[in-house]
Amino acid sequence: MDCCICGPMAAIYRPPRNTICSPCYEGSKAIIAFLNDGDHAAGDVQGDRGLVTPRGLIKHTENSTKQGMREAWEQMKEMRDREEAANQRAGFLEQGFGAAWMEGAHTDIVVKPGNGPPIPAHKAILAARSEVFQHMLCSDQCKAAPAGGCVSLPELAHDELSLFLAFLYTGTLDAAAAATATSASERRLHALLVAADKYDVPFLGRACEARLAAAMDPANVLRTLEVADRVSSGGALKERAMGTVVEHAEQVVFSDEYHDFAVRNAGLCVEITRALLAKAAGAKRA
């Protein structure tokens, strides 16, 4: 479960009903209790509404406020320590695996892209990150194991394969893939999203979806919608894209790109038409 406060998922791409983990929930309760106690104490001391509070009750309220503040501070400190430890552990793993891949140390397989030279890699890392690769690379589970220490991913270009492998080793997207300011970087994210679905790497899929959702606008929404419809995990991204199409219907539907999109995606055009009619019917009832 991704926490909406301390979770790694981007804030713009959380579920409609945000979830919260137990430490964050308890810390929030303690902070709210502290603020409420402070408000009550201040009101009592100043004699709000003409009431006079006994000194013992004021002292008790002050003690409760201090206790709530201390508990909230301890819980927040515990959360920070846990987050720092997680970041240190992630950095340790990222630097170790990333260095091994970048330096080509003890590689035992090469991965061939659709174009360009093959890229050396480690069977153990590929098999650990993806069950699909595990079945492909383990001869006792697959009679057609890759021959000659080579596996081919023809659907990925060389730069896309490099980013894909880098994510398997480090768990992070390269800046060239994270930025969506150019058509090339957008193409890489689309390719990585499809690869994450095909080779069963859900963490990569969520990272790509978050970045595509954050950069979505009327100019690129049709391309993102088309890719989201192709992957099994793209339900939330597709829903967001459909919402963007409906919100900017005139700009999207009358664009030059929409004609080619409609030729390739008749089913999605039906969904768009239904969504627009539903919006119009709702506005009419209102």
Chart the SSEs and their pairings:
Layout: H1 22-45, H2 55-103, E1 109-113, E2 119-121, H3 123-129, H4 131-137, E3 150-153, H5 158-170, H6 175-178, H7 183-198, H8 202-214, H9 221-230, H10 235-247, H11 249-253, H12 256-264, H13 266-285
Parallel strand pairs: 1-3
Antiparallel strand pairs: 1-2
Structure notes:
This protein is mainly alpha-helical. The chain has a domain at 216-285: Serine Threonine Protein Phosphatase 5, Tetratricopeptide repeat. 66% of the residues lie in helices and 4% in strands. The protein has 13 helices and three strands; from the N terminus they run H-H-E-E-H-H-E-H-H-H-H-H-H-H-H-H. It has helices at 22-45, 55-103, 123-129, 131-137, 158-170, 175-178, 183-198, 202-214, 221-230, 235-247, 249-253, 256-264, 266-285, and strands spanning 109-113, 119-121, 150-153. The chain has a three-stranded mixed beta sheet. A hairpin with a 5-residue loop joins strand 1 and strand 2. Helix 3 (123-129) crosses helix 4, helix 7 (183-198) runs antiparallel to helix 8 (202-214) and helix 9 runs antiparallel to helix 10. The longest helix is centred in the N-terminal third of the chain and has 49 residues, at 55-103. It is flat. The two termini are 37 Å apart. The model is unreliable at 10-16 and 44-53 (pLDDT under 50).
Question: Brief overview, please?
Answer:
The chain is mainly alpha-helical. It is 66% helix and 4% strand. The protein has 13 helices and three strands.
Relevant terms:
286 residues, mainly alpha, Serine Threonine Protein Phosphatase 5, Tetratricopeptide repeat, three-stranded mixed β-sheet, 4% strand
